[in-house]
Amino acid sequence: MESIEFAPAGWIRLWPDFLSKQKAAATFQQLAESLAWEQHAIRLFGRMVNQPRLTAFYGEQGVSYQYSSLKLSAIEWSGPLLKLACQVSDVTGESFNSVLCNFYRDGQDSMGWHADDEPELGDNPVIASVSLGASRRFDLKPKSDATDQKHSIWLESGSCLLMGGDLQHHWLHQIPKTKRIHEPRINLTFRWIPR
Ligand SMILES: O=C(O)CCC(=O)C(=O)O
Ligand SMILES: [Mn+2]
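Above: the input record for the complex with manganese (II) ion. Below: its predicted structure, written as tokens.
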């Protein structure tokens, strides 16, 4: 496990081999085929635009999550997602009751700069992020816009990243678009959302 402390605040930990490459590839296939992937439209600067990726939200019954003008009710998790949630909890020592799943079809799919700071996640949320399929670059920059402090981490298939402390108060993160990647990636962000 690798650990990085962030100034001004927060931390991340990374388990590069949370799942073996083989297990990660099999899990990618299974989730790509079985989850209820949808492309949602969100309101951006007063216009409705499609998110540049597919998503699916799963978790314990009754959990819902509101972000970017969307309100998602969890589909009850079972099988592979529930098993992964248990494995993530075992490795990280943290509890999760839901998972926001993202499907990046290729390098043209992305996630813009944001922090996971919605009020329902609580004050200092701990979020675990499991990556399957193509490696993508994960960038972090301070909200204060001190651009010299930018960090980038390659999230490889089978890795598990944990974000915690007050990272979401002080830092933004993104998955940038790239012309160089043509393969798909699934990312699973495990969260704790009170019901
Ligand atoms: O795809 C990723 O690695 C990041 C996903 C993310 O930041 C999110 O779902 O909030
Ligand atoms: Mn995020």
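Notes for the reader.
The chain has one domain: 2-191.
The helical segments are 21-34, 79-92, 167-170.
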